[in-house]
Amino acid sequence: MSGTLNKVMLIGHLGDDVKVTYFEGGNCIGRFPLATNESYVNRQTGERVTNTDWHNVVVRNKAAEVCEKYLSKGDKVYVEGRLKNRQWQGEDGVTRYTTEVHVNDFTFLTNKSDSAQPSQGGGQSSYNQPSSPTQPTQPKQAAPQASSFVNEDDDDDDLPF
């Protein structure tokens, strides 16, 4: 196979509020740390061990504004995107490196009782960032509940369930 794949899917908690930076021309970029945990029981001591990994998450334009408005520190979120490595020169002259998750799709997983959050079923809302900046941005529709998959044409079925 000659193709390659760069895809990341994470479910975690925000380590801080979303910080948005605006640029000339109306574009913006949002950044926030995302914590994912791994838990296991140490076989020798019997105690539960939890390891936390931190990820630098980047969202752009309308997605950044949506995240800034509805996400806050501690909220649980699903993000999907790709890894990007970046380097820059620090003020001290040292070259620094970082790895970021550039998000193109996300779903809020924290159920908020705040009526300001858009509700699209189950207390979750999704957003799919468009691939081109000229395409209008629209929230992705949440999956319908299982009961809505019933087909009314199958009423004469002999199935016991």
From TrEMBL:
InterPro entries named among the record's database cross-references:
NA-bd_OB-fold, Primosome_PriB/ssb, ssDNA-bd
Q: Which Pfam families match?
A: SSB
Composition bias, Acidic residues: 151-161
UniProt keyword DNA-binding, yes or no: yes
Keywords from UniProt, A to Z, are: DNA damage, DNA recombination, DNA repair, DNA replication, DNA-binding
Gene Ontology CC: nucleoid
Q: Name one GO biological process term.
A: DNA recombination
Region (Disordered): which ranges?
111-161
Skewed-composition ranges (Low complexity):
113-148
| Annotated GO MF terms | single-stranded DNA binding
Q: Where is this motif: Important for interaction with partner proteins?
A: 156-161
Oligomer status and interactors: Homotetramer.
Q: What does this protein do?
A: Plays an important role in DNA replication, recombination and repair. Binds to ssDNA and to an array of partner proteins to recruit them to their sites of action during DNA metabolism.
Query: What's the name of the protein?
Result: Single-stranded DNA-binding protein
